[in-house]
Amino acid sequence: MTAAQWKQFNFFDRQQSFDPSDKTKSPAVFEKPDISVMTSGRGQIALADSTGLVYVCDRSFKTHSFLAYKDGRVTHLKQLKQKNILITEEDGGTPVAKFWDMDSVKYGDSETITPTCIRSIKIQHGAKPYPVTTIAVLENMSQMAIGLASGAVIHIRGDLSKDRTIKQKVIYEGEEPITGLGFREQTKSTILFIVTTSSIMSYNTTASKPTVTTLDEQGCGLGCAVMSDSQEMVVGRDEAIYFYDSTGRGQCFAYDTPKSSMTWFKSNCLVIVSPPVTTSTQLSSASRSSLPFSPKRNSALSELTKVTIFDTTNKFIAFLGTFVGGIRGVFCEWNSVWIVGTDGKIYHLDEKDTPTKLEILFKLNLYVLAINLAHSQKYDDASIAEIFKKYADHLYSKGDYDGAIDQYIRTIGELEPSYVIRKFLDAQRIYNLTNYLQELHSQGLANADHTTLLLNCYTKLKDVSRLDHFLKTDADLNFDLETAISVCRQAGYYEHAVYLAEKFQEHDLYLDIVIEDMREYDKALAYIRKLSPYEADKSLQKYSKTLLTHLPDQTTEILVELCTGTLSARNTDDQQSPTPSAKNNTSALQTLSILPFATANESASIRSDSSGTNRDTSIDANEKQQHKGSLKYSPPSARIFMPAFVERPNYLVVLLESVYEKRWAHLASGNDKNNNDTASIRSYSTREDKTIHQPNGTSTTGPTLSHQEKEERKAIWNTLLELYLMDEQPFPLSSESSTGSREELSDEERQKRRKNFRVKALALLKDQAVDYDTNQALVLCQLKQFDEGIVYLYEKTGMYSDIVQFWIDKEETDRVIEAVRKYGPKDSSLYPMVLTYFSSNAEVLSKSTPELLSVLNHIDSQDLLPPIQVVQALARSDVASISLIKRYIGKKIEHEREELSQNEELIASYREETEKRRQEIDELQTSARIFQVQKCTGCDGMLDLPAVHFLCRHSYHQRCLGDNDRECPQCAIQHRMISEIRRTQEANADRHDIFFDQLDNEEDGFSVIADYFSKNTMTFAKLID
Hints:
The protein is of the alpha+beta class. It is built from 32 helices and 33 strands. Among the domains are: about 35-120, Beta Barrel (Thrombin, subunit H); about 125-255, Methylamine Dehydrogenase, Chain H, CATH 2.130.10; about 260-280 and about 300-350, Thrombin, subunit H, CATH 2.40.10; about 360-530, Tetratricopeptide repeat domain (Serine Threonine Protein Phosphatase 5, Tetratricopeptide repeat, Alpha Horseshoe). It comes from Lichtheimia corymbifera JMRC:FSU:9682.
């Protein structure tokens, strides 16, 4: 492929550079005829001549020079990129390579500098020296390769940045001269490319036994091998350009033109210089006349050199120009390509910016090339989408609607969809619009309006097959599901709406369609049974009242299963809708008004319910552990369904009884298994009404209930108690019609029902497992005049006096007698009350005289009341006579006399002992004591001096006492015990809590106080503020 066959553009601006001091001439350094080599890098240009001088230029062509070699010609220059190191090579016999540190420079006069030479290496190979053709150096300066004209490659390894020992090794010897070298650094190895005129090879310098591997049997000329920025060896031959990596030949670009040198520019451009050609053979007379030279000038200026810049990424020629005469060198610096001619002129090619390039391509309608160029320049998605938009607009203006919609599809995500939709609203372009909307949905970027528009396209075109394909065929549909269902409902496609709702688990929408539109209530209940408990709970909360109106038995049955934890949960996970459902679709069809086929009905707002968007079916793992056995989830509270039973209390009774029985009845039976008075709700059930079938199996809970479950059970308990005590006319389960009409019950049936419910109510009250509010239950029992319940609650709360007073108020003497017998031992305050009641009138007294005497005997035997209180209780009326209590009073007086006599005798003995102790103390304090003991109390031997005598009349040898001669060993134990008791009394004197605890726990508090006084403890007590 020749240059004419590639797309050619002028993406570089060509300008000639002049000397800053003389704008008519080129910089002086470039006009030197003996410049032999040049290079660039790190913001500077380096040139060398045949005398050994090296010139360094900056951006303003200010030049400094230094002498690299005294008697030699510099043939190679290399500027490292990572370090400011300049490498020179001299070919004046034995080649010598020097490394110059350009950051360590000493300035002489205005034009000379002296950089530091950090290393000098003499290249040795055989007795006869050969010229160096090419060099390559690693950027870290650890390896260097030198190619010779003899075909040998010398590899130098070591720290080239310091004057240390290095190793030179000939790694290749061939017959053809070396035309190119280049290092490729890989993760674990370093590859050296070797190019000759006849072959291309690679050499792994880091291998343990490195060998030369041939990559291609064809080579290239000198100067036609260069390393790219991606560390690939780029080889130029007359027919093409080839890329090589460590594995072999890579991509190839056919470019059939002679090549004399190649230079890599930036990341993707290759500067190709062709050999000069004479103008007479290559140009027409018209072309020759336009060139800026005279035929009378020398032959060197009658030649033209072609320079081509090839974009290897986008595969086009970015610049093609000719230069008069030969080209001495090409280098790239300051983001430009610099060309130095043999006539001393220097040109720089400045690359146009990318927006300018794109504008050129747009004018030529080369949008594909513009897109590739934008990608190579790392344009963002928005910028690339803008190019796609221009391309699509171009195709649309040409009438290529299919091609245009393909390009518009590529702008999805960046271009506003309404821009495209407006262009394709014509009925003839609906097919293209449908393709665009489908792709918009597949990428998940469609909103409710787009879904509405697409579905209406299908429905208006009556393309049911494509509608089915869109809704039913694809496994993952990306659209606003709720809007799609709403549109199908509005258009009358109930089958599609139900299909979508069921497929994507839009339970709320499914039930809404089935119940509100189709009115298939049995189908709705069947669907609810298939839902997970969480979804079933949410659905029944919304539709339970409607379902109870039409199917009360089946609805109550499923509610029982749900609230008792026996509703089977599905094993499959809910399938999520590909995109979130819209919360408000009132504007979903607004865009239909611009369609040519839109109607008023279809422009109406779409009704949607956001409650169907929540599909969180997770159940708290902690709540799951609260139920075992058949409970696979935490049952919902039955309280949330109570409002639905407002007109059907008997069905509510069934629900609450079932929930209570299955979830907590076993706790009551376990707690009250020894209580014969307590019965479960079901054990009292004698109702003959229709019973709803419950699933088999029992449910058990753990030994303890959470606070939430306790509150739930308490609420159900209170509601059941209210329902049992309710006297209103109920809805009979067996005779109720679907319209809610009542059939009156007979008085006998009402009494039977009342009795049955009262039995159940008492069973509830006796359920010890429920920590219900006793006051609330008591108020309810009092309002409904439930005597058994009132008495039980009084007994449960220990209000025994209220029980007795309750029966007294009802003047039921037998119940009063029974109550005092049962609760009198627990509460002595009942006796004055019953004594007053028994003596209230003659009729009661005559009926209860034996019981009154029995009460008096019990009071006397247990000493429950003082006699004065008994007399006061009987004296409140004139019915009781003194003969009733004559015996009781006599016994009490006799008992008091005996107790008084015993106390007097005890007091006399205490006084006598106290007087004796006082005399002994006085004798010890006032009289001398004579010791006549002859034996030692300790050893029982004859007492001799020295001896020790104690006032307790005990005597000891001094040797028997040892060091402890201050107290009697025999009496010390008793003395210490008395001292400890006294210290304890002193300590307890401040422990008021111990005193009050004893006072509360003892029946006779006065005896406790007397005991404290007797032990003299009160003497040590401190006053309490």
